[in-house]
Structure formats: C-alpha cells, structure tokens
Amino acid sequence: MTILDLRVTLTDCEPPVWREIRVPSDVLLTDLHTVLQVAMGWEDTHRHGFGRGESYGASTRRWTLEPVSEKADEHGVTLEEALGDGAVITYVYDMGDDWEHRVAVADASEGTTEHAELLGGEGACPPEDCGGIAGFAELVSALRRLRSGEEPDGWDANRLRHLVGEGDPDDLARKLLDFDEVAVQVELESAPIPELRVSRGPDEGLDVF
Q1: Which residues 6+ apart lie within 8 Å of 69 measured at CB?
Q2: Checking DSSP bridges between strand 2-10 and strand 99-110, what pairing results, if any?
Q3: pLDDT, tens only, 178-193
Q4: Where along the chain do its domains lie?
Q5: C-alpha span between 110 and 26 (Å, rounded)
Q6: What domain of life is recorded for the organism (predicted)?
C-alpha cells in the first residue's frame, strides 16, 4: 500500500492555516473530505468539491479546475485516481465563501495504515460563514483593534455580533490571535479522525477499519 503525506494549505489565508495529514493513496475522496473537515476544524455544513491541479484566483477557481474524474461523483474516486500523474488537487469548501485548500503530496512511502494521521499544523480554522478570505482578514483586523483598546463600531461591531452572538469577543480573539502551535499540535493528534474506507477493487469490496 502506498502511504501519502499531504500538506493541506488554506489558500491566500493570513494568518497562515495549514495541516499535514497521512492517508493511504486509495482513500476514497468522500472519506478524504471527512478527514479534511476534522483536520482543518470545519463543521461540514456547506457543499464542497475537488478539482485536479490548482486554480488561478478566487474569482474563477471553480471554473478553471479540471474535474478529478469522469465519474459522476466523488464516492467511487480514490485520491490516487484524483491525483493522476500530478501531485496536487484542490479542495473547495463552502461554495459561497469559497475556502480553497491546496492539497499537495509532500511524501510517499510504502507501508500500511488503518486510519488517517495528523502530523502537524498551524493556524486556527476561520469561523464558518465569516465571509471567506477577505472577511476573515477583516475579522482578524477587527479583533486586533479590539485587543488594542478600540471599541468596535459600525461594520466591526456588526461582524462581531454576527459571529459571536451573546458570547465574548475576547474568546474569539484568543482562539484566532493567540495560536499556540504546540497546543494545537496536541489537539490535532488527539482529534477523532474518522475511520477510513479504502477501495480494494471490485472483487475485494470495501474494507472498513
């Protein structure tokens, strides 16, 4: 079995957000989607899609990506098939906010694995429905101004009210601005990564680990 170490990077995001995960090359894309959701910290409340290669900017990303397969959906497509002769696929989550993830093969080796592994990471996942990359940048800027002693008003106040509700904006600031790589590394390693189904061919059926 070929084992792939993947570097998953949230494209154009500042502060940077990335994860390194290890999966079998024949993991089905439908299961890779679940792994990516857990590893990144998303809530799986929006549509998603995979494309082969890399896109060329936020305004055209969904229209310039080559389909990963001629099959109608991702349920019967493995990561190996999606990669083809390349080493990069793109994963887009939330077709409104368009969170684009560059999924690149960092290393490949022969071995066995019964589950996905999280190898490392940096950066807290943006909140759901915060307006994509531009909205996240504005949110981080607003939280930094709040931390410096400025009272939020106008757009900042509305954005914080929408995302925090009755909660404390300082809690959100700590989550997004005080990122502790060591602490998050421990959290990632103990994350409840789902069991994986891998494709074994038509005669062998599906193995569930």
Answers
A1: 77, 81, 82
A2: antiparallel
A3: 766 666 666 666 666 6
A4: 2-123+183-199, 132-178
A5: 12
A6: Bacteria
